[in-house]
Amino acid sequence: MNRYDLLRLPPVRAVLASRWPLLVIRAAALGGYLLVVVAGWVGTPVGNRNLSVVLVWIAWWALLILLAVPLMGRAWCSICPVPIPGEWLQHGAVLRPPPAGRRGWSLGKRWPKVLRNTWLQNAAFVIVTLFGAVVLTQPRVTALVLALLLLAAVLTSLIFERRAFCRHLCPVGGFIGLYSQAAPLELRVKDTALCAGHREKTCFTGSSDGYGCPWNLFPGGMVKNVNCGLCMECVQTCPHDNIALNVRPFGADLMQPRARRMDEAAKALILVGSAAAYSAVMLGPWSQLKTAAYSAGSAAWWAFALVFLTLVLGVLPAAFYLAVWAGSALTGSRRGGRQAFVRFAYSLVPLGMAAWIAFSLSFVFTNGSYFWPVLSDPMGWGWNLLGTADVPWTPYLTGILPPIQATVLLAGMAWSTGLTRRLAAERGPSPRSGRAAVPVILFHLATTAVLLWLLVG
Amino acid sequence: MASRRLTEWLGRAVVVLLAAGPPSAALLARGFEARGVVALQGVMPETGGWQPATLTATVGESIRLRLTSSDVMHGFAIGRDNRPPVDVRPGQVTDIMLRFDRPGTYTFYCTRWCGPNHWRMRGTIEVTGSAVAPDVSAPAPYLALGIDLDAPHPSGVQPDGIPSAARGAMLEAGVPEAYFARDYVRRHSPAAAWRAFRGDSGMRAYSDQQLWDLLASVWRRNTSAAALETGRRLYARNCAACHGPAGRGDGVMVAALREALRAPAEDAVGHSRNRHTVAKPADFTDPDFLGASPVLLHGKIVRGGMGTGMPYWGPVFTDPEIWALVDFLYGFQFAYDPQGGQQ
Amino acid sequence: MGRRTSGSWPWRRPLAASRVWLVAAATFGIAVAPLPLSSARPAERRVRIEASMAGFMPAAIAVNPGDRVTVELVSTDVVHGLYLDGYGLSVMADPGQPATLTFVADRPGTFRFRCSVTCGPLHPFLVGKLHVGSKGIVWRAAAIAALIAGAAAWPVRR
Questions:
Q1: Does B11 touch chain A (CB under 8 A)?
Q2: Interface probe, candidates A287, A363, A454, chain C, greatest C C-beta count within 10 A
Q3: CA-based torsion, A434, A440, A446, A450: positive or negative
Q4: Do A438 and C153 touch (CB under 8 A)?
Q5: Is residue A102 part of a domain?
C-alpha cells in the first residue's frame, strides 16, 4: 500500500488530534487576519509598504500556491480564520462541544439543494479576478475584500449549518479544492467495512469530543480531497481511530472516476484561463491592458472584462470541448460528449497548477523583499519594530527565474499529458482508445506554448 | 463538567487575546502619536497636495515634521532657505526638525517632479512670536523699471552664428567699462545691448558677428562658473521638465499642458483651471529670446506666468539663485565655455 | 482494506523505459544545445525608454548579444526607475532629467525590466522586456513541449 499515515507519528497526533493546538493556531490566524484588515484600512495607501497587500498577496499567496497546495492540498483550510468566528457562534463554544441542550446562535438551515455545487465559487473567483489589478495593489480594497469574506462567512454560519461558506462560497477554497486532488496528502478512513458496521457515525454527527464534519462530508465515503478541509474534527470524534492522514503519490485523485463533476471541470478551465490572463496583464508589456484592468468601472475596464469573460468562459471551454470531441471522433466512439468533457478536464489540473506556480514565482521572487520592511513597519507609519524597515527592494534570483518558470510549466505539461493518456485508456486499454488523447494533448501543447510566451517570452 | 467549563473559558480568553490583540494594538498605536509632531502627508496636487498645507511655528522653537507620501516620490524643502531638501518616499516616513529664527511666512514645496502640477505642491509655515520684524525681500527690479512681463519681446536682430564668449573676450580691449557694469547688463536685453554696441562709434570696426561675440563675453563676465553651475542645477531640477533639457520648450510635461486645455474647469480639489491662457513653455533657443533682458527674465521667474502654466518662483528661490538661473538661460543662446556645451 | 483506492500509478500504462530515456536525452539536448550565434557584430545601441504611470514605451526591446546598450530613461510624469532582471542593473530618472544606463549585453536571453521607484497604483505592473539575441528560452521550451506532446501522443506498442 502506497499510503503512510502521518497520525502514526506522535508529534503529528499530538497537534492534530487534540483541540488546543488547532484552536491556538486558528485564533492566531484570526488575529493576523484582523490585523491585516486594520492595516489595510488605516495604514498607508501605498501597497508595497502596507502589511495587507504584502502579507496577503505576496507572503500568504506564495506559501499557498508554492508549498501548501501542491504538497498538502487543502491544508490552508484547516487553519483558515475566515469561518472560525461564525463557527464559534454556531456552536456557542470555542473549544469542545457544549453539553447537550446548549446551542449556539444559528438557524441551522440546510444549504439550498440547487446551490449544492461550486458554481458560486467559480463565479466568485471570476469576479475577484476581474477586479484583481485593484485588489492586489490597494490596501483598502484588500481590507474590504477580506472583511467582506469574513462577514459573509459569519452570516452564512448564522443562517446555515456547518461550513456552508467554505464549501459553496469561498473563492479560494474553490481552486485549492480542485488542485488538492493532485497533492500527496489525503484524509481517508482506514477500513470502510468498519464504518459500515458503526451505527452512530459520530464523524458526521459529532460527539462530546468534537463536531461532525463541518464540510458536510461522510469520511467513510470520501474518495477525493476536493471538499475536505483537513479540520481534524472526524479524527477526534471517531471512536475507533479509523481515520488516517495519509501521505500518498501525487495526483491520486485525478484518475478517480467517481464524483467527476461539471462544476469542477469548469473550474479547471477557468483557472487555466485566469492564469494566462493574470500573466498577460501583470507581466506583459501592454500598458493599455494594464490600465484597462486597473481602472475598474471605466469603459476600458468593461471592454477588458468582456474580452476576459469571452476568452475564459467561452473560447477556452469551446476549444477544449472541440479537442475532446475530436478525440472521441478519432476513436469512433459514440459516447456522450459531456461525460468525456468532464473526464478530460481533470487533465488540466497539473498544467493549471503549474501555470499558477510559474506565474506566482515571478512576482514572489521580484517583490518578496517587500516582506522585510513591512514586518517592521506594517502600517507605513515610520515604525521600525525589528530593524528591517530600511531594507531596500531587491528582486531575488531574476537571472534563473525564466528557466525555473519554463521547467515548472513543462513539468506540469508532462504530467498533464501523461494523465490524458491514462484518462483516455480508462474507456478500455485498446490502441484506438488512446487516440482520444491526441487532440487533448495538442490542447495542452497550445496552452503551454501560450503560457511560455506570456511568462518567459 | 466544571473543568470543561473552565477549559472553555480559558479557550475564550486565549481567543480574545490572540484574535483581538494584534488589531487592537494596531488601532491603539495609531492614537499614540508623539506630542509636538506634525504629520505632513504629500500626494500629487491633483488629489490634494500637502496635507495640511498651512503650519504654524514659534520663533526659536523646533517643530518636528513626519513627512510621508501616499502615492509617488516627492521631496520637501523650505523656500529661500539653504537647508538641503529631503526625499519624501511613498509609504515611508522622513523625520525632520525645523527651527526658524526669524518670524514670517515660509513656503515649503515639493522638490521632485510629481506630475504637471508639481510646482503647485506648496504650503506655508507661519512663524510668529517675536518682536523682530520679518524679513521682507526687496521688490523685484522689473516693478521699479515698469517692465511689462507679458508683452512679447521680439529681438529684431539675430546673430548669424552662435556668439562665443571666448572669441568675444579677445575683443574686449577698448570697450567702454560702462557696458560691463552689472546694472547695464541686467537692464538690457542682448538685442538692445547689441544695438547699443552697433551704434557706438568706438566699435564701428567690428563686424556684426564680432559684436555678438563681444556681447556674449560681456554677459559671461557678469556671471561666474559657480553661478552657471548653480543655474544649470536649478534648471535641470525645476525647469527642464517643461522647457526641455535643451531649452527648446519641448519638455515631457508639454503633453500634459496640452491636456489641460481639454480638461474640465476645476481639478479634483476645486482649483479652477485657467484653460484658456495655458501656453507652450518658452523656447530659449528661439532668436526672440535675445529680446528679453535679465531683469525681465528675473521678473518672469519671480512672478510666474499668470495662468500660462509658468510657475512663480519668488517664494522658492533666493535672489542669487534666480540671477544664477537667468545667467544660465542665456547659455542657450551664447557659447559660454570653449567646448560650447549648452547648445 | 474495504475498498481499493485509486492511486495514479496502478492505472498507468507505463511507457517503455527506452522511450522515457529517449525523451529525457532529447530534452537535455534541446535545453543545452548552443543556438547558432547571431552573426551580427556587436554594435553600439541607444534606446530611449519613456516611463509613465501607465507603462514603459517601448516595452519590448531587442538587441544582439555583445551589443553595448545605452538605455536612456525618460520619465514623463513622476519619478520612475528601471531595474533590469538578470543583469541586476538599475537607474532612476526625474521628469526633466533623463538618466542613462550603459552596459554590455553579454548574457543572452529574455529579461524583464521593471520600475524600481514606487510610482502610483500600477507600479508593480510596470514591466517591459529586453531580448538579447534570439528568444532562445522560448524556442527551446516550446521544442521540449512539442517533444513531450509527441511522446505522450505516440501510440504504445504492445
A1: yes
A2: A287
A3: negative
A4: yes
A5: no
Query: What is the count of structural domains for chain C?
Result: 2
On whether both C51 and C63 belong to a single domain, the answer is: yes
Contact A27 B18 (CB under 8 A): yes
In a shared domain, residues A315 and A375: yes
- Residue A394 shares a structural domain with residue A429: yes
Interface size, chain A vs chain C, as Cβ–Cβ contacts under 8 Å:
174
pLDDT for B190 equals 95
For residue range A310-327, list pLDDT tens digits in order: 999 999 999 999 999 998
Mutation for B interface: C52, C74, C75, C118, most B CBs within 10 A? C118
Which chain A residues touch B70 with a CB distance below 8 Å? Answer: 44-46
> Could you give the CA distance from residue A21 to residue A409 in angstroms, rounded to a whole number?
37
- Indicate whether C119 and C158 sit together in one domain: no
Answer yes or no: do A292 and A217 share one domain.
no
Average pLDDT of every residue of chain B: 90
pLDDT of residue C158: 41
Which residues form the domain of A178?
A: 4-91+114-247
| Separation in Å, CA of A27 to nearest CA in chain C | 32
For range A423-434, the mean pLDDT:
78
- How many other C-beta atoms lie within 10 A of the C-beta of residue A452? 25
Say how many Å lie between the first and final Cα of chain C, rounded: 32
User: How far, in Å, CA of A394 to CA of A374, rounded?
Assistant: 14
The DSSP code for B232 is H
CA distance C95 to chain A (A): 19
Neighbors of chain B by Cβ distance (3+ pairs < 8 Å): A, C
List of chain B residues whose C-beta atoms are within 8 Å of the C-beta of residue A44 = 68, 70, 90-91
Distance CA A368, CA B72 (A): 20
Could you say which residues of chain C have pLDDT below 70?
1-16, 35-39, 156-158
Which of A188, A214, A247 is the last residue before a domain boundary?
Answer: A247
Question: Residue A99 domain-assigned?
Answer: no
CATH homologous superfamily of domain B138-343?
Answer: Cytochrome c-like domain (1.10.760.10)
Same domain, A302 and A274: yes
For A301-307, the CB contacts below 8 A with 24+ separation are: A305/A130
Residue A378 lies in a domain: yes
Q: In this predicted complex, what is the ipTM? A: 0.88
> Do residue A344 and residue A296 come from a single domain?
yes
Q: Which chains touch A (3 or more CB pairs under 8 A)?
A: B, C
- Could you tell me how many CB contacts below 8 A there are between chain B and chain C? 62
User: C118–B90: do the CB atoms touch at under 8 Å?
Assistant: yes
Q: A128: closest CA among A144, A113, A115? A: A144
Residue C27: closest C-alpha in chain A: A410
Residues A90-103, buried b or exposed e (16+ Cβ, 10 A)?
Answer: bbebbbbbbeeeee
CA-CA distance, A179 to B301, in Å (whole number)?
A: 65
